[in-house]
Amino acid sequence: MLKTIEDLKNLKGLKVLVRVDFNVPQKGGVIRDDNRIRAALPTINYLVNAGAKVILMSHLGKIKWKEPDPAKIEEMKAANDMAPIAARLGELVAPVKVSFSKATRGEELANAVAGLNDGEILVVQNTRYEKGEEKNDEALAKEWAALADVYVLDAFGSSHRAHASTVGVPAILKAEGKPVAEGYLMIKEVDNLTRCVEVAKEDRPYIAILGGFKVSDKIKVIDSLLKKCDKLIIGGAMAYTFKKALGQNVGNSPVQDDQLEYALRCVEDAKKAGKEILLPVDSVVTDSFEPVEGRVIKVVEGDIPEGFQGVDIGPKTMELYKKAILSAKMIFWNGPMGVFEQEEFQAGTKAVCEAIKDLEGKAFTVCGGGDSASAVKQFGYKASFSHVSTGGGASLEMIENDGHLPGVDVLR
Ligand code: ADP
Ligand code: MG
User: Fold this and answer.
1) 243-298 per-position pLDDT tens digit
2) Distances in whole angstroms, Cα of residue 159 to Cα of each of 124, 386, 398
3) I need a labelling partner for 283 at 20 to 30 A (CA). Which of 35, 78, 180, 383 fits?
4) What is d(CA 351, CA 178) in angstroms, rounded to the nearest whole number?
5) Catalytic option among 211, 370, 391, 407
6) What are the helix (H) ranges across 96-199?
């Protein structure tokens, strides 16, 4: 079985390399939301209290290495400097000492690690400053592995990527017989999402709610959920691909014509399996996606007229979906019901949040996906869910791959 950090004994004085997910939204060092830093605190505090020397590594943002102009690479690096994140962590764990290593490898980094006292923390500069990180470069992984006696993965949001810091390092340490383990955030995420793919009897009826933008982004999620759930509720832009596939007129709604056949097959397969797929019976439509003055916004049932596009589920659909949601014992939700970034089109997504709030204490409810989770937080419903995943892509990959993630698999 997978070792958790609580299985790690006698950590005092050991160098513990923790891969965390400090990829927070920030600009110029001003952090908009420090949730991801806070989410790693249980693991960090545990290790500090155990007297370990804690080395934290994370990526931040993107460095596009294909960029030919070295000056632009330096600009991208500067925009994704980890130093302000280390400073924020320092505030959160005070009076524990947090130092920062500007170097991502070499003697300077080794010296910084050697200078750690028991119970102190070293934050290493953005792992993506190294070109080899995303390629899982072996020499880089070896160098990082050599810094540590123990490896802990707590970066759920990065664990679907086989990079040097998420997969390369633990593979090497494990081969050397050194302990590798999951942190508290990983354990919580993996346990909750596994429950949505290894469905227990008492968690039925299991209802999946899917929305968001593209069918093509979600094919593997839809396939997996259709196998596991009892009912599938579809909203968001992807609903229009399904509606068009069923022969309805969707006006100028965003449709993926190359997915019509797939959508039809889903509906037919679901019917054969005795599962219901719910699609919107009415929509909020507009003649302009851009929030220009004087645009027409209205509710239509059935066919959407030319010149209009569906941007949210309508009031009848909200009632229909709410009623269905209230019959569930377990919910997995990915993808907003409408263009929730615009106030006029938030009602559908909020209605789903409200229904899930009504299920509090009566069902196990999970939200996964980058935009969905941020909508839930933005509308103030996070506490109403059993679990809101911190990992967008990683939570979807867990659903797609029956609970498997590269970062988790390497630890097992
Ligand atoms: P997640 O990140 O939760 O997996 P997606 O990335 O698939 O979700 O989709 C989120 C995006 O889908 C949001 O930006 C939202 O505006 C958009 N969206 C939802 N419904 C519609 C719609 N009817 N028309 C256009 N965009 C939509
Ligand atoms: Mg998204």
Assistant:
1) 999 999 999 999 999 999 999 999 999 999 999 999 999 999 999 999 999 999 99
2) 18, 21, 10
3) 383
4) 49
5) 370
6) 107-114, 138-145, 169-175, 184-195
